[in-house]
Each structure stands twice: as structure tokens, then as C-alpha cells.
Amino acid sequence: MPHNTPILSAKSISKRFGGICALEDISFDVERGQVVGLVGDNGAGKSTFISILMGVVTPDTGEIHFDGHRVRFKSPRDAREAGIEPVYQQSALADLMNLWRNFFLGREMVRRLGPFRLLDKKAMRQASMAIVKEIGVGLRSPEEGVRRLSGGERQAICIGRSMHFDAKLLLLDEPTAALSVRETRRVLRFAEERRDRGVSVIIVDHNIHHIYPIVDKFVVFDRGTKIAEINKCDVCAEDVIQAVASGKYECGQNSTTSDGEG
Amino acid sequence: MIRFLKRPETGAVASVLVIWTIFAILAPRFLSTANMGNVLTAAAEMGIIAVGVALLIISGEFDISVGSVYILAPTVMLKLTTVWSIPLWLAFLIALAVAACVGLLNAFLTLRFRFPSFIVTLATMLLISGIILAVTNGFVTSYMVKNTLFDVLTKRVGDFRVSTLWMLAIGGVIAFLLDNTRYGNSVYATGGSPEVARRLGINVLRVKMTNFVICSTLAGLAGCIGTARVFSVNPTAGFDLMFNAAAAAFIGGCLITGGRGSIVGTVLGAILLSSLSSGLIYAGASPYWYRAFVGGIILLAVLINFSFTRGFRRAT
Question: ipTM of this model?
């Protein structure tokens, strides 16, 4: 494995929906162990970009390189198998299903019985419960339903899931929306812990103040184009908010494009 | 204990016990093996359809056309044999394939164009039963020859019939698959939280399509079993069965919105409905009350199901 290359490298990604240009010529890198804040106003193209990384949408042109290889995700399954794990509040867990079924949904552990492959329930119960204990979500049994969990706990379970499957890149979509201050901090701390273990993170969020402390680099989208790529150490949160609000980023300051063709 | 009460089939188990107790007190002959044989024979044909319908409901779709497929498959089978002299076994297999194709058509129209399956299958039901009526002119098609296929499907053994075993076997296999395989897990997720399932890499459309096909094929099989029992098929029948099969699925704890339901409960639901129809006669009531009772029981089942979902909404 080439460990000096970026974990993710997007090269000239474009995507049109009908006549509307959702993304145009987007290029940027995510380094290993880096937390990237993908920000922009509504309709900037953040969701489309995330959908491309998740294999839900395929780009019209451009290339994605992940972990040193060019990838073409045809489905979310491909993306997850490559090591990209989604962390959502709303659409991450199936409400009517219990913990272990949720935890392994789409990637169940199986044991062979002659020609059949049956769910290895015992192993999945143990593995899911071990992780849940580690991250401190208050579920007493792997048979317990997940419907009472808060948005923060749901994301914690997703992050726990990414730990189990050893994901290399986490996609946090609006992780702090509608969360209490305490929960927000907890979710972001989990993300930080993953980062400290060399996992890369992309956070899409409106609240730049919330994510500012943990982000290493901001990538600002506006109406489908990348208008800025800023290392955090060069700016304060207000500058980023200004860029998002105005759709412009003045390069007069110390804007850097340390890793990409800006 | 609480976990048992929360299981989707609990309502069905309780209702069967209550109904049997009531009828046993009102008419002790209700529990005779002769009557139990009749109850299970009627339950088998309804139950095989209901199991397919329940599987489809759990994955979030619905099929009204099973009532017409129940007539279509045996009509195809008997017409191929009597008019075209195709061997009965082969005709049977072709009939099942035709039923499967109806499922594919339902799936295609529902999933490709994103039409609600309720409307699509309402249309295909009317289309199919209309075509059958037009082709047969409404006449019964008969095949009064003893043969091994019919014996395999529904041979009479004492007071009981082989078809009951078919229902138990099919119900058992599907219940086991739902609980113990990856496919089962993805069926529940597809029905309950399609968006979650899709984002986690489950091919939601393929799951639904598979279940449309299974549902329709089982309706065709049930039709062939019914025909094997009476050696004929009546093109004007089948409508009641469709409602009863859906009722059995709902009594069995299936949520119309998908994601939850029980195959065991559905089989019990079918047994409950056929017990009701024979029990009313044994108890001396007019059998015309049957429908009214089914209506009441469905409302009760829905009440139980919804109290479950409401409970969970309040908690979130």
C-alpha cells in the first residue's frame, strides 16, 4: 500500500442532472488522518459530491482515486467494501430492527452450513455489543431496538460500525444538526479519535463554528464549483463563514492550495 | 415475557386460542378431526397465498393481483392439458412460470416507474381476470382424471390433505430464511427503512422484485392446489381469497408500511380465518356473518399493530 499518497483524490469531477450542473470540475485531496470540512450554502453540490463518494451517484467525468487506486463505485456496496463508511443521523439505522441486525446490515457475518450461508447471530451479537460498550451507548442487549436512540447515539453507532469494519474514510453528513451541545461534542470527539488512528474524515455541515475545532482543511463549494480550499491554520471561522455566505473567497490572505490544483 | 408480547405474531397466537376456545365451548364438534381437516385444507390454500403476500408486505410492497393469479395459473395449466394436450406436469410448470411473469410485470411497473404497487396490482388484477373471463367465456374448465400431480399437491389422507404440509413447509422455509439469512435481513431493512438499506449497499429494487415474483408464484401454486382438490377451475372465483390472504397477513402482524411482520403469524392468521368460517356454521350462526367477523378481526389486528408503532413514535 502506498502510504504517502492521499487517501482520496478527486480529479475534475463533473456531474449534471438534466440541464442543471450540480458539480463542475471539482478537484481536491484528502490526506490520511486528515479531517476535511466540506462547506457551502444550500445547493452548492455538497450532497452530490458525497453521493458520488458513496456510490449512489456516478460522475459524468473525472476520476476518483481511493487508497492509491482509481475506483468506479457502482453502488454503495462498492464504496463500503473499499473502506468508505457513511455516518448519518437520520438514514443510518433501520428503526424497526434491533442493534445487531442494524450493525451488520448489508455486511452480515455468516457461517457455512453445507451449501447454505446462515447468519452467525452469536458472533454478530458479541461483536456489536463489544463495540457499543466501547463507545458508551446505553443499550443493554444486542436484541434491543435502536428506535429510541438520539441522533448523536445513532452516529456513534455508525462510527462504531466503521471501527469494526476498519473503514479508512468516514463521511459525516450534517453530524451536528439538531444535536444538543453535549452530543455534538461527543460525536466530534469520536471522529477525532478515529482521526488519531489514521482514519480520514469528511464532514459536511452548516455550522462552521461546531466543526471548526476539529477540521484541518476547509473545502468551500458554491453552486457546483470549488471556490476555495483553505488550511484551517490560515483562517478563523468567520472567514470561512464569509466565504460560504458570499460565494467568494479573497485570496489576498494566506490562502493555500498545498495539495491540489486549487 | 415482555419480549414475547412484543413479537409480531403474538396477536395471531392469542386470537387463534381465543377463537378455538369459544367454538369448542359453543360446538364441541368443532374440534373433531374431520372439522380440523376441513379447517386446515381451507387454510392451506389461503395460507400459501398469504405467506407470499406477507413476504412482499414486509419488504414494503403490496400485491392485490394474487386473487387473479390464483385463477390464472390453474386455467393455464388445464387449458394447456385439455386443449393443447401438453403433459400435465409440464403444463403445471408452465403455469407457475406464467404466475412468476405476472410478478415480474408487477415489479417492473412498480419499480421502474415508481408507481404505488397498490394501484399497479389493482390494474393487473382486473386485466388478468378480465382476460381469463373473456377467453373462457366464464365457463368452468375441468380435468376429471386422477393423476399423480394432483395427489402430490393435495392428496386426501384420512381427514387431512397433503396441501397442509405444503403450507407448513413453504411457511417454515420462508420464516427461516427471513430470520437466518442475509436476504432476510435485507427484506426487513428494505421494507422498514428503504433509504437506509440503499445507503448501506442493499439492492432494494432486487429485493422487492424477488418478493413480487415469489408472491405471485405462490398464488399460482395455491391456485393449482385448489384446482387439484376439485378437478376444475372457476374463472369467477378468487376475489374473496385475495382479501382473506391480505387479512391473514395483517392478522399475522405485518405492517402495511413494511419492515415488520411474521410468517408464522400469517399462517396462524389463515388458520384463524378458516376456523372462523367453519366455526360459525358449527355454532349455528349464519355463515353470512363470516365477512363481518373477518372485518372486526382485521380492525383488532390493526389496532394491535398500530399501538406498537405509536408506542415507538412517542418514545422517539
Answer: 0.80
